[in-house]
Amino acid sequence: MPIAHSACPDAFELSAVHKRYGAIPALDDVTLRFAVGSTTALIGSSGSGKSTLLRVLLGLEWPDQGEIRVDGQTLLPAQVLALRRRVGYVIQEGGLFPHLTAQGNLALLPHHLGWSKDRIRQRAEELATLTHLPLSVLERYPVELSGGQRQRVALMRGLMLNPDALLLDEPLGALDPIVRHELQDELKAIFDQLGKTVVVVTHDIAEAAWFADRMVLMRNGKVVQDGRLEDLCQRPADPFVTRFVQAQRTLRGSP
Ligand SMILES: Nc1ncnc2c1ncn2[C@@H]1O[C@H](COP(=O)(O)OP(=O)(O)OP(=O)(O)O)[C@@H](O)[C@H]1O
To answer: Residue 29 is part of which domain span?
Structure first.
C-alpha cells in the first residue's frame, strides 16, 4: 500500500532497489519508505533479504540498481562515514570486540571522535540506566557477559552517539525466552521513549507485532506485504503470508 507523501522527507527510502549475490536476488525491486520517528518490523523467512536491506540503508552494501535516499538525499559513498555516526546498528549477539571491555567497546567511536573521558563515561552511565545494566558490568569483557547483557551493551553502543535512527538485525535472536521477553519490554519502552526511526529485523511475528504497528514481510528479496498484523492475518496479499502467519506456534494448554 503506498504511503502518503508528507512535507518532511522520509528517514530512509529505497526506490526500485536490486541487489544480487551471483544468481541470488537478495533484494528484487524493493521500494519502501520509513518515516522519521516510525518503528517498522522487517519479517520473513531466512534468506529473504532482511539483513541485506539494513546493510544497503547503512551503505555497507551498494545496490546494483535503484536508489537509497536518507533524509531525502541520495546516499553517496562519500556520505557513508557520516551516516554511520547518525545511525545505530545492532546485530545478533552484539558484534562486540572481544579484546575490549564493555566500556572499551562503548568508548571506541566517541574516543575516535575526540570525546573526553568524562563525557564518554557520563553517556555510558545514562545508557546503562536506560538499558537497566549495572555499571559494574561495563568493566567486563564480552566473554564474561550473559547473552542479555551483551545485547544491552550492543544497544548502548548503538546509542552512544545519540543517533537519529536505529537499525536492529535480530537483536534478541540468541536469547533464552525469559531474557528475550524482558528485553522485548525494555526495547519497546526505549523505542517509545526516544522517538527515533527504528527498523528491526525479526523472524518472530509476535515480537514484530509487539515492537511495531507496521510490518514488512519479505520473501526471496521481494516485499510480499507491507501493513499491520491484522492486514497480514485478514487480508493476506499472497498465500505465503498466510503460511508465514500460521507457521507461528500457539501453545497447547495455555489459557
Ligand atoms: N555476502 C554475501 N555473499 C553471497 N550471498 C549472500 C551474501 N549476503 C547475503 N547473501 C544471500 O542473499 C540472500 C539474502 O540474505 P540476507 O542475509 O539478506 O537474508 P535474511 O532475510 O537476513 O536471512 P536471515 O534471516 O537468515 O538472516 C540469501 O540467499 C543469502 O545467502
So the answer is: 12-94+165-246
User: Which atom, in ligand 1's list, is nearest to the CA of 44?
Assistant: 21
Query: Nearest residue CA, atom 29 of ligand 1?
Result: 47
Residue 94 in contact with ligand 1 by CB distance below 6 A: no
Confirm whether 40 is domain-assigned: yes
- 138-167 pLDDT, tens digit per residue, is 999 999 998 889 988 998 999 999 898 999
Looking up residue 53, the CATH number of its domain turns out to be 3.40.50.300
Q: Which atom of ligand 1 is nearest to the CA of 203?
A: 25
Q: Could you give the number of structural domains in the chain? A: 1
Q: What is the ipTM of this complex?
A: 0.96
Classify each residue of 172-204 as buried b or exposed e, where b means 16 or more C-beta atoms within 10 Å of its C-beta: bbebeeebbeebbebbeebbeeeebbbbbbbbb
Q: Give the pTM.
A: 0.90
**Is 124 inside a domain boundary?**
no
The answer to whether the CB of 21 is under 6 A from ligand 1 is yes
What's the gap in Å between 175 CA and the centre of ligand 1?
21
